[in-house]
Amino acid sequence: MLGAIEIDVVGPRRIGRLASYDGLMLEATGFPMPVGSNARVIDADGHAALAEVVGFRGNRTLLMALDADAPHSAGARVEPDRRGGSVDVGESLLGRVMDALGNPIDGLGPIATAERWPLAGRRGNPLDRARVTEPFDMGVRAINALLTAGVGQRIAIAAGSGVGKSVLMGQMIAGADADIIVVGLVGERSREVSDFLATKLSGPVRQKSVVVAVPADHPPVLRLRAAMRATAIAEYFRAQGKRVLLLIDSLTRVAHAQREIGLSLGEPPTMKGYPPSALGLIPRLIERAGVDAHSGGSITALYTVLADGDDTDDPIVDTARAIVDGHIILSRSLAEQGVFPAIDVGKSLSRVMSDIVGPEHQQAAQILRRLWAVYEENRDLILMGAYRAGSDPIVDVAIARHDHILEFISQGQKDRVDYPQSVDALLEAFGG
What we know:
Number of domains: 3
Strand content: 15-25%
């Protein structure tokens, strides 16, 4: 007697045809796939190139090519690619470097994974996010003492070009108390990617790190996917109960990628040429980090933001600052004085610090910030010699302690100062 036979019923396969291509946007007919789907564009010679569905126009499906150099011809076959909405995850990713599609680029062979995770993350209840209640040791004295980060906090690092964002990120990678480090290098120069791997992720740190790197010369969809893939990988490890440090360098380049896509789709430009989708992307990406109340894992996230022309009120900076739990502003003036990390204490803030530090620590940090603010308020008078000693006692103290404050902020690039040491140094210098 024959046993039961199970038959998988497969729906009709949707095959479209390429109708037009303008160098960035593909238009296909007969291909009604949802936005976010992946597709393969197959020419007559059998060459297949990947693309992603980004919108619709009438009865045509709009796709963005994932390979800018792929040859496309009118009438090419367009087929769905089923694996586009999820990413490969697993312990085998540790120590590896990959592109936005998960292909290894470190020359260490293929990556064998057995699990998948949604590229856009798993939407959950807001109440599944636990509160930030525990300090996260960054290994940087100024941050540990004055801008104390918490486990699961989201932080934006804003600065102009050449002020030391990458150097500070390297210090935090080396000094962070994290089980897993996930780095998304988006839209940077190819040379900077190689330099970052050689100088910031060398030694034991590399073995607990995952890097997703997509340089500036890649299509915008790949640059956008790099940030999403890095975040998805971090989410997977958080679900395993791990303490994850996620770094996206830079959030501005991610927004630029979405701007290219949005303008190609005909979205109206708004503030400084950014369409609504570019600004709307930022909270969707940032909100995926935090503490998972179920697994106990966490994603502490750092996002670098390029302030064009040192304008810290740039739309991207402003949008990111409104959604994160803290921001670190780097000062070009301090960098020119040789103060590194060039953290502007007065303009930087950790919104969770009051929830995770003791009263003595909080008071000492407030004293230092007060002296910093008083000195900055009277800087012009002091530098011109127009201020007379004794006119205001608090100004006198601010002038006398200013060099001590700069010395406290400064830290060697290869030095690590843990959280207890940072707090002790602050209390010793500014306590009481």
